[in-house]
Specification:
The structure is a single chain. The two termini are 21 Å apart. A 6-stranded mixed sheet has the order 6-7-8-3-9-10, with helices on both faces. Strands 2-1-4-5 form a 4-stranded antiparallel sheet. It is built from 9 helices and 10 strands. By secondary structure, the chain is of the alpha/beta class. The protein is globular. It has a single domain, classed as Rossmann fold, CATH 3.40.50.300.
């Protein structure tokens, strides 16, 4: 079932006297329960596309629809807060909070219904991703890179969203940990019926996705 639709998305930069279009009348529809990867060379517009799809950036032309509603009508702030979650290469965790506090923090700002007490719910969620209570109550700095990324994913799920976007989520991790994180993201699509979209340079990551997309000349094409 469709969850996210990109319609005639265009975006460009001024380069000298010319405007370089990195997204050019791009159309694509993403569905629940599927794990998508988006590949493309550096500078092709992958991160910009994810930012537009996630309401962090506005398209210069075209529209983004979440569950049939234009995200501008939903309100970009409300869309980001209640309907999707980002997972970044740098984790973007709050450094002065513990792992569990990072998860509780997002529970307290979303408008979505989240089971209470939040602290217990956060501990249970982290435990599902291998972060036991003793680690969950540690400073973020005392966790490994792979553990911090698991916390970031748990934080993303904590607001009960159905759309998860990740920008090079394993770029700072070793190969073994990379595979573990990608398996978690795939599990979210298959077992939790989430729509997971991952921007990556890695063919091995793309190989684990349900649908591989290539961003070429401003358009998304499916790799066969």
């Amino acid at each position: 079932m469709s969850i996210l639709r990109l319609e005639n998305i265009s975006y460009g930069y001024i380069d000298g006297n010319n405007k370089r279009m990195i997204l050019n009348n791009l159309d694509y529809t993403f569905e629940r329960g599927k794990f998508y990867s988006i590949l493309g060379p550096s500078g092709s517009g992958k991160t910009t596309l994810l930012a537009i799809a996630g309401g962090l950036e506005k398209a210069q032309e075209g529209n983004v629809y979440f569950e049939g509603k234009n995200v501008n009508d939903i309100g970009l702030g409300k869309y980001r807060r209640n309907n999707l979650s980002f997972v970044f290469q740098q984790f973007n965790l709050i450094p002065y909070l513990t792992a569990v506090e990072n998860v509780v923090n997002v529970m307290e700002i979303t408008n979505n219904q989240v089971p209470k007490p939040h602290y217990t719910t956060a501990l249970n969620l982290l435990d599902q991703f291998g972060i036991v209570k003793t680690k969950a109550e540690r400073s973020i700095y005392k966790l490994s890179g792979g553990e911090q990324q698991r916390v970031a994913i748990a934080r993303g799920l904590a607001t009960n969203v159905d759309l998860i976007m990740a920008d090079e989520p394993t770029g700072n991790l070793d190969t073994a940990t990379e595979q573990e994180i990608i398996k978690i993201l795939r599990m979210l699509a298959k077992e939790y019926n989430k729509c997971v979209i991952v921007v990556t340079h890695s063919d091995s990551i793309a190989g684990l996705s349900d649908i591989q997309l290539k961003l070429v000349e401003g358009k998304l094409t499916e790799r066969m």
